[in-house]
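ok trying this again, last paste got cut off
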Amino acid sequence: MIILNGATHLLEHLILFRGTEKMTGSRLANAIEKSRCLFYGWTNTDWTDFVITLPSEYLDLDWKIHADMLFRSNFSAQAMG
């Protein structure tokens, strides 16, 4: 098994700062801040965790953000440029 040291950390930063197809990284950060959420990611050798802690009335926002990050992360050439 080949371990790519740092690959999961790179993935974390690409998602957190580049955003998704639906939300830019700054729009994502603004939505989280506006709803009084705490959002962070951390990495291990071969996985990345994203954690959102928020008031229960914003649970729907949490589901939307996590689903968007999982299925629509913005790794396009334009976003990387």
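PB: full thing came through this time. Residues 19 and 34 are 17 Å apart (CA to CA).
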